[in-house]
Amino acid sequence: MAARDTVIEEYTAQLQARMYQYSRAIYRSIKDLIDPYVAPELHLEYRRAVLEQCELTMERLAKDPLYFAKPDRALFQDIRRYFPITVQAEVAWAVKEGLAAATAFIEEQIEAGALDGGVARCRATTRKGKPCQRTPLPERDYCPSHQHLERSKVAA
Description:
Layout lengths: L1 H29 L9 H24 L7 H9 L8 H24 L35 H9 L1
Helix pairs in contact: 1-2, 1-4, 2-3, 3-4
């Protein structure tokens, strides 16, 4: 049991490091665009604020990926005030691309079952609208109770 916990802790640390890399990549791509016409002390404060918002967004995305709709918009709204209007389109693009890559990575991890304690879950929902908690069949997306949903998907 202790060995399994150690493996999960190591994998969690790797995921956190990966999300940190996405956060820093976004920051590095936009840090030079921060408003150059403010006082030097304020410029440093702006850089710190942008870095903090990038990290907070990645942390939220990693902790609650299914309920964080449009993380790119949220991050851009939080940091846009630190940039002149002339570069905001470039900042928005960099944020959108960086978060698209991070979201794709998170979705891969969810599909592999890595973000659910290493156990894959059925993709179906119950009658009450809650996610099914059963383990899917090998090489499948659905559990035995919901395998009929996969057949209809394949037939379509």
